[in-house]
Putative dehydrogenase
Amino acid sequence: MKLRWGVIGSAYIAVNRVIPAIQKSERGEVAAIASRGIEKAQETAAKLNIPKAYGSYEELLADPDIDAVYIPLPNHLHKEWTIKAAEAGKHVLCEKPAALHTEEVIEMIEACKKAGVLFVEAFMYRLHPRVARAKEILASGEIGELRAVNSCFTFNNAADAGNVRYRQEWGGGSIYDVGVYPLTAARWIIGAEPEAATVHAFFSDEHGGVDMQASGLIEFAGGVGMTFDCGMWAAYRQGIEILGTEGRIELKGAFTDADPFIVHTKDGARSEGPFEGINNYTLQADHFAQAVFGEAPYPYPPEDSIANMKLVDACLQSARMRTRVVLNG
């Protein structure tokens, strides 16, 4: 049995990452794609060998042969089309961040639950086996007690002034775009919800006033902290460092690549991996299908997206107000 996917929009990540990955998956197939204009939809469908093309999102949602939709639209449209998809009886895989505010995410999840459909926020990196392996090493005590997590995700796209990432009203900015990766990583590594956030950011008037770079401290219980930085006007880099009392785990390329990671202990350093032939996006599609077919629950429940958004909200509030923000439950 294969899950029949419809894709709402022809964003770069859809065309170059998610659609090819679904087509390579064991449990999914891309049955249709929709765009705001039929010409774009037909062009993308022909390029990627997708059977159906629609000139509106509404037409795709009305197709009875579509089981689930993938939504790679600009952030401010996630809520609207998730709810419309749920009302049409379609399961939803929505690009990160799920929405612009916690209240929106709650409304989206409630709509999906009411319709009896699955909602998943597309953090594909968390499904990679090295994530589970890193947590296993941490839990084993091999690197001692956890003291801190450091993470980063930066790139330089500042010259593309018309990019949707620089539209504040559309949910632009580095925290929404790449900061969400370190923030979710801290929560699954530490295994708890944060207590407070303090973030300093560079807001660029040249780019719609969005945060082009942000650096922050996320506080957890027991004196454990997570420091991070994210940016869209800086040299490319990404990674996670998990620091313990007796060693550390270093994951370079943590959010997009499948490189081995390094475990540093008192006895030296060793490589874990390589993890060859694994596509995070394909894993995501197969886990999603298994959950829809009732074979296994999705590893991250919809409520996880609410917790993600609460932290993002706190980080943006801290950056804009230049103050420490306490999270309450």
About this structure: Residues 3-122 form a domain with the Rossmann fold fold (CATH 3.40.50.720).
